[in-house]
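As a warm-up, study this chain.
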Amino acid sequence: MADFLVIVESPAKAKTIERYLGKKYIVRASLGHLRDLPRSQMGVDTENDYEPKYITIRGKGPILQELKKEAKKVKKIYLAADPDREGEAIAWHLANQLGVDVESDCRVVFNEITKEAIKDSFKNPRPIDMDLVDSQQARRILDRLVGYNISPILWKKVKKGLSAGRVQSVALRLIIDRENEINAFVPEEYWSIAAKVTKGKSEFDTTFYGVGKKKVKLTDKVQVDEILGRLEGDTFEIDKVVKKERKRNPALPFTTSSLQQEAARKLNFRARKTMMIAQQLYEGINIGKEGNVGLITYMRTDSTRTSDTANEEAASFIETTYGKEFQTEGKPAAKGTGKAAKTQDAHEAVRPTSVMRLPAAMKTVLSRDQLRLYKLIWERFVASRMAPAVLDTVSADLVNNDVRFRANGSQVKFHGFMKVYVEGNDDKEEEKEKDRILPPLEEGEQVHYKNIDPKQHFTQPPPRFTEARLVKTLEELGIGRPSTFAPTLDTIQKRGYVTLDAKRFMPTELGGIVHQAVDEFFPKIIDVEFTAQMEKELDDVEEGNKKWKKVIDDFYIDFEKTVEYADTEMEKIEIKDEPAGEDCEKCGLPMVFKLGRYGKFMACSGFPDCRNTKAIIKPIGVKCPTCKEGEVVERKSKTKRIFYGCDQYPECEYVSWDKPVARPCPKCNNPLVEKKSKKGVHVQCTECDYKEDVQ
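Now compare it with the structure written out below.
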């Protein structure tokens, strides 16, 4: 009979941990929380010091009974839920249900599922940290008070099925504010002048800088023509050459937020998918002789710190593989200090549990997506422990009759961390770094330009939020916490408040209606500064500096009055059906446009007697390239992705993810389509190599 019962959250890691601990231990899984606030009611007694009413979660009763049965057979119980606020709360609930003294050394935490980490954690058990538990309770109760008070008002005043939450309402506000900025944006004209310059057999590009030594902004064609009219001949004199050596430091290891952002940029993963796969890598993968092993450290963390053991292993690997000069000097940089850094920070950044498990060696044991994410985490960590890259930069000013052009070039002198990994960019596709080399240039010498290319441009509005950009913005503003980002983005999409177009968030009409109602009656809920301050106060609870009930009380006193006012004064918002301009093919009554959870759709006005509905199709003014008779229309797939098809379907089965263009390829006469990328939109042929940029 075993002496000790260890309770973890996931069955996937239970077997691995049991194997590491030996026969005296039995390891069981709670499958997350066993107790929570009831779904059918508020579950918070606002008249009795915000006392929560916890109940056993539906379906979890048998698990709890089995754990109680196992608990009676052992000498001691260890609670080994995840090393964060949620994990601490799960341990606290289990302790209460199983009769474990929360002040005893019953709590075990580990940041990675490796034999060494597990063994060490059981040498240092501790009491349950009630500050962490109180912080989790405060967040849970605060979110319940907000959601369960505002949502019923939205149901009554707008339509059923709506919700408003503390973090999701701010995220929706950011998306709507950005859309308003885009709609209000007035483009401004500006120009550039590029010159291709030759020196001997070398060619390089320059751009107009100014007149004399003053920088000049080109705003119209008249100004451009005036500049071009000043040029004499085709010769430039090199007026100034500045050479510098610049160091580029590696990115820090991943936090939850930066992992979600980079996986979106480089792997095209949604935040939810990133966290799901990271969970699998953390909990353990069967890698052969070693059995199930956790390949990465805990993935919910705000810290970039890494252990001395991991740093030493990385240093040894880097020296052996790349050379001693590629090792970083001194202690690696990191962020995260204080008690919060040791708890919610989960002790470390997201990193591989062993650098020696190379991604190439994991190909046969990981799925394609698991391998891609593991490789990203592995490369980021290894690069973070490497020396900075060194670049030689050159800036040269070229002058013709006081008209100044400038050429910039750089060359990688020492690759350093760039040998392994370069951080992605939100605004353009990650490209392989290329050296932009200028020929040797000396002040006073003359060069010739081959051509001058003036171009008209217009300023662009701020871009819509991608998932990565929105996560980054929420983090910078102090809204929510890393573990909440993925479910928050998921919720606003499931509620139909936003859609994704070309991987960028766009608010729906329903999202705008909900936001307007919340903004008018609950302005504090969507106020960025107020929400960030609330997060700070919740962190103060975690660090033992504030009492959670006081934080809730300070918020709820005013909020309760606001709820009462909104319930009385908010007018019912009637979402009227619009005539669709066609009749129902089933009963002959007029069709109407209705606003549903996922946007507008067409339905019969005879509902509920006639339940005919259909998606709205949008003609794009292009003849079908297959049947030549039908019109190409814009449609949406079941996953809400836009595609294009013939309106004669099913007779004509033409379909395309790319938007067709209303003219044939000038080279081969086949159909043209618009292709979208992070760089913008371009037109290309579906058959040959013809391609053109869209201005």
